[in-house]
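ok here's Molybdopterin molybdenumtransferase:
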Amino acid sequence: MTAQPSTANPPGQTGPLPWARARAAAYAAGVEAAAPPVEVPLADADGATLANPLLTRTDLPAFPTSSVDGYAVRGDGPWRVVGRVLAGTMPKPLTEDGTCVEIATGAAVPEGTAAIVRTEDADRTQDGRVSGVPRGMPEWREPGEEARLGEQLLPAGTPVNPAVIGLAASCGYDTLAVRAAPTTAVLVFGDELLTAGLPGDGRVRDSLGPSVPAWLRRLGAAAGPVLGPVEDTLDAHVEALNRALTGGAELICTTGGTMSGPVDHLHPALAQLGARYLVNTVEVRPGFPMLLASVPRPGGGTALVAGLPGNPQSAIVALVSLVAPAVAGMSGRPMPPLPNIRLTGPVGGRGGYTHLVLVDADGVAVSHAASSMLRGMAGAVGFAVIPPNGQASAGDEVPLVPLPLLAGERP
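and the structure:
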């Protein structure tokens, strides 16, 4: 007998949800589940997301600063040297024509400066004066040249990286209001799974327990513990989910058990925990029996549970289809965009289902891409999206669901 998906559908869902609607529902669920912003020191903000727009707290630069080492001069030369200006000090004005001060890169330009003569363009006369010809362009940065006081530099929802931290520091921030990366846990279901050694004797290696946390980190989540393989009993499934919930996970990814076969206990376990389904099965191939549910946490609040199918490629389809939008919503980031890719060969459809097809950077559908295989994914950049009842020809541009790879990881 063929296993069937659970009938515990969300309100209004009577069958598999169209793929685009499932993505949107997952993003909305993430927004609803997002934790409140927190204020953190700059050094602790890396990997979080701006909760508010980043506005300048001063003009950048705040005062005229020299772009070069040289001499700030007033009037015609040769100029008598009347001082030196180093970075970090405020100089006295130049009030007398024919005078100059030696100036360092980054130092404040004295009021009254007409030009800066670069060190390499300057000479000293026998009486110690400076001669030289200023270049055509001013050799200093004007206040507000980079940004004006109150100007928006970055919108809310921007991921915080070292460049953002440096920019925030440059305009006077000591802390940032951010949304932290959501905490996660991964539950691996299946008595047939091995966690070490060679597959054999009817058992296979678990490929998702080691890899899903790495995918989650690349999506912007904080990867937490991996529990399992969890025994194929209802009690064990409930206990594992409770461990993840009491451990503080805001997003729990499970692998396997998303149908209603004799050892598929995820749906009954969710029912015992009072889950509210948000998505239950999706019109997509591969990855059809995926789900997303909201589960009460002991002590208050809820967590999201993403049920990933047990077949490895199907699990990653569920990850990019439901988990990626949910993480973006929980993090306060925009819905993950779908860039286009030009195909260099024909790609067939899957009837009334959206077909997600692994392709490489050249737009070629990769081989070894069955739902149970991971070899093709290792050389792919993402999934080309073929709409229901559609197909694509060589030269067509279609949406791409990128694999969440870090810079430099593209195959």
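+1. The chain is about 20% helix and 25% strand.
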